[in-house]
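2024-03-11 09:14:02 INFO worker-7 job=invfold-0412 stage=load source=structure_tokens
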């Protein structure tokens, strides 16, 4: 079972995330990432310069995270609208 860690950047921007959307992240996304952060219908491993990152699709938004497999930690890095996600 993986643990969830949030970067300081994510903690700063989560204040601006819609309250219902953040509840969905806490109640639905985080439990899925704790069980298996590698595979799922909304999970995709990124390529190119972002090859260490994964993204979780939440409607029009993307939650970006890294996996530290040796420590069993999922590090939530960023949350963006899909139009601005890969800038």
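2024-03-11 09:14:09 INFO worker-7 stage=emit residues=87
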């Amino acid at each position: 079972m993986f643990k969830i860690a949030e970067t300081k950047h994510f903690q700063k921007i989560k204040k601006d995330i819609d309250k219902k959307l953040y509840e969905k992240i806490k109640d639905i996304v985080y439990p899925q990432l704790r069980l298996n952060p590698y595979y799922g219908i909304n999970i995709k491993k990124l390529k190119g310069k972002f090859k260490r990152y994964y993204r979780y699709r939440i409607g029009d938004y993307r939650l970006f995270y890294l996996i530290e497999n040796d420590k069993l930690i999922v590090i939530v890095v960023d949350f963006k609208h899909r139009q601005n996600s890969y800038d």
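2024-03-11 09:14:09 INFO worker-7 stage=report msg="The helical segments are 8-13, 19-35."
2024-03-11 09:14:10 INFO worker-7 job finished
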